């Protein structure tokens, strides 16, 4: 592991042509991320309060489930994060701040 990674010890899974637990969980996480994104769009386009409430309830459910699956993968060492470089953060801030100033200027 390099010093820029934030992760837990990896739980090893069988490799080869057959799917393993990590493969199934990764697929589930991708599916849930897609559902959350699509429900977010649906919320912005709901035509009435009742429909909005239904979509919001489903969005909250899938969003929570997506977070649980992410945490499971992270705890098993199957999801590795990278520490942000301070220069990258500073550059991104400057870029976004410049765009914000352009919008307000």
Which structural traits does this protein have?
mainly alpha; two-stranded antiparallel ribbon; single chain; 105 residues; flat; 68% helix
List strands and helices in order, with pairings.
Elements: E1 5-6, H1 21-45, H2 49-75, E2 81-82, H3 86-104
Antiparallel strand pairs: 1-2
Helix pairs in contact: 1-2
Brief digest:
This protein is mainly alpha-helical and 105 residues long. The protein is 68% helix and 4% strand.
Structural class label: mainly alpha
Which regions contain 5 or more consecutive residues with pLDDT less than 50? none
Structural domains: how many: 1
User: Number of helical segments?
Assistant: 3
Extended strand count? 2
Distance between the termini: 45 Å
Beta content? under 5%
- Overall 3D form: flat
The amount of helix comes to 55-70%
Largest sheet: 2 strands, antiparallel
Strands ordered across the widest β-sheet: 1-2
**Integer-rounded radius of gyration:** 19 Å
What integer is the average pLDDT?
Answer: 90
């Amino acid at each position: 592991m390099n010093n820029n990674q934030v992760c837990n010890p990896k739980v090893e899974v069988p490799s080869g042509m057959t799917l393993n637990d990590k493969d199934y969980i990764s697929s589930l996480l991708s599916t849930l991320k897609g559902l959350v994104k699509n429900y977010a769009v649906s919320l912005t386009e709901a035509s009435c309060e009742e429909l909005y409430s239904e979509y919001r309830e489903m969005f909250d459910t899938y969003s929570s489930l997506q977070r649980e699956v992410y945490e499971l993968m992270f705890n098993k060492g199957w999801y590795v994060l990278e520490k942000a470089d301070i220069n990258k953060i500073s550059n991104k801030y400057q870029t976004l701040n410049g765009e914000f100033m352009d919008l307000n200027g």
